[in-house]
Amino acid sequence: MATRELKTAARIILVGAPGVGKGTQAERLMKRYPQLSAVSSGDLLRQSVRNKTPLGLEAEAFIRAGNLVPDDMILKLILHELKSKRWVSSASSVTDAAPAQPSKSPSASFILDGFPRTAAQASRLDSLIPINLVVSLITPVHIILSRIASRWVHAPSGRVYNTDFNAPQHPGKDDLTGEPLTKRVDDDEDTWKSRLKKFDETSQPLLEHYQQKGVLWTVKGNSSDEISPKLFQELETRFA
Q1: Of the candidates 100, 55, 70, which has an alpha carbon nearest to the alpha carbon of residue 82?
Q2: Looking at the DSSP assignment, which residues form a beta bridge with residue 38?
Q3: How far apart are CA 240 and CA 223, in angstroms?
Q4: What is the pLDDT of residues 72-124, one digit of tens each?
Q5: pTM of the predicted model, to two decimals?
Q6: How far is CA 193 from its chain centroid?
């Protein structure tokens, strides 16, 4: 895949239902635009807990008590990461009245994953750092359900196959070990219909929030290969 250069900083969030291919699109974007980095709130949280940082110890206390880690704590982790890369001013704080002034350098471009998930979280993020592109990825429900029905896994390694577009060399067998492939326990249609319904309900206020901010862009397609060229074109229009 040929690479392209961004001319100004892209601060991106991908929003899409489970099974729509967000991870695939993020990987392809970072390959095409090497200045883009991934910033995952989940990875930052796990790393902070593992390294026993002050924030990590605080977060671990919430996790051990069976509670969700507070939004402010996630925001502090994200801000700390952006500061460490010098993408925002070192003086920025989650308690500042005005958002941080982010770097306009294309090397300060990132895809934020895992946060925000709600409109309230998006408002808090707005007060910290302005996101300038939110991509709503849409694939018809029947296509997603068909992908899941065709998905098989090699449980010991985590290798994933799909009989429609990434079939194993020998039906029902892992390519490397020859061991049998299995279905994930939660890969049944009813479970997925419930997950997709819940996503629709929770994502709508989030998308409306970004629509009002003027940064929402929607792309539709039946496959990742259909969506990627449209996504590349939009980034080049906006940032290259």
Answers
A1: 100
A2: 111
A3: 25
A4: 899 999 988 988 888 887 666 666 556 667 889 999 999 999 999 899 999 98
A5: 0.85
A6: 21
